[in-house]
């Protein structure tokens, strides 16, 4: 029971952090040029499987309450975050953990932008990819390294073994 409660608590905290970071900075979080700061959290599946549902729920809430792009963003954006988090949780090489979020969001979110705002797909792939890279490699990866060096944070977060 303790492990299940701890898992749910971690997932809930991650969901809340993702939603708040996204909703707090809407000008950075939505649109053709976006650097969603909350995407830095997509490295957390490296440490805990609780990050997978946590990121899904956080993205779902952020898009439900903040996205000007409509239901398509709520559904596709959330599913993309879930797929990227699940994929990241399976990666064994630390430096590659940010890639699923960058790759999947770079391909899916431009489709949402095209459908919602008629923004051309190919340029959006580059813009979203750049924003994702800044958020995930620029903020998330250093956070990942910091967590690894912090005994207390690593102990609180980690439920996975790495090579």
Anisotropy-based shape: globular
Mean pLDDT: 95
Biggest sheet statistics: none
Count every beta strand, where a strand is a DSSP E run of 2 or more residues.
Answer: 0
Taken in chain order, the helices and strands follow as: HHHHHHH
- The number of distinct structural domains comes to 1
Instruction: Please bin the fraction of helical residues.
Output: over 70%
Helix count, per DSSP?
7
How far apart are the first and last residues' alpha carbons, in Å?
28 Å
Poorly predicted spans: none
Structural class: mainly alpha
Radius of gyration: 15 Å
Fraction of residues in β-strands: under 5%
Q: Can you give a write-up of this model?
A:
The chain has 163 residues and is mainly α. It has one domain (2-157). The protein has helices at residues 2-24, 26-29, 51-66, 71-90, 99-117, 121-149, 151-157. The longest helix is centred in the C-terminal third of the chain and has 29 residues, at 121-149. The two termini are 28 Å apart. The mean pLDDT is 95.
Question: What would the keywords be for this entry?
Answer:
mainly alpha, globular, 7 helices, 163 residues
Secondary structure elements and their pairing?
Elements: H1 2-24, H2 26-29, H3 51-66, H4 71-90, H5 99-117, H6 121-149, H7 151-157
Helix pairs in contact: 1-3, 3-4, 4-5, 5-6
Short description:
By secondary structure, the protein is mainly alpha-helical.
């Amino acid at each position: 029971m303790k492990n299940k409660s701890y898992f749910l608590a971690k997932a809930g905290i991650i969901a809340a952090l993702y939603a708040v970071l996204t909703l707090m900075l809407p000008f950075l979080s939505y649109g053709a040029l976006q650097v969603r700061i909350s995407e830095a959290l997509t490295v957390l599946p490296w440490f805990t499987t609780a990050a997978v549902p946590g990121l899904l729920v956080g993205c779902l809430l952020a898009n439900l309450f903040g996205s000007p792009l409509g239901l398509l963003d709520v559904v596709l954006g959330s599913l993309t975050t879930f797929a990227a988090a699940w994929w990241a949780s399976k990666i064994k090489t630390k430096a590659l953990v940010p890639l699923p979020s960058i790759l999947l969001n770079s391909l899916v979110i431009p489709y949402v932008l095209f459908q919602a705002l008629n923004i051309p797909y190919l340029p959006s792939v580059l813009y979203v990819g750049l924003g994702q890279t800044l958020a995930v490699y620029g903020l998330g990866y250093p956070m990942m390294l910091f967590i690894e060096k912090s005994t207390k944070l690593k102990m609180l977060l980690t439920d996975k073994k790495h090579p």
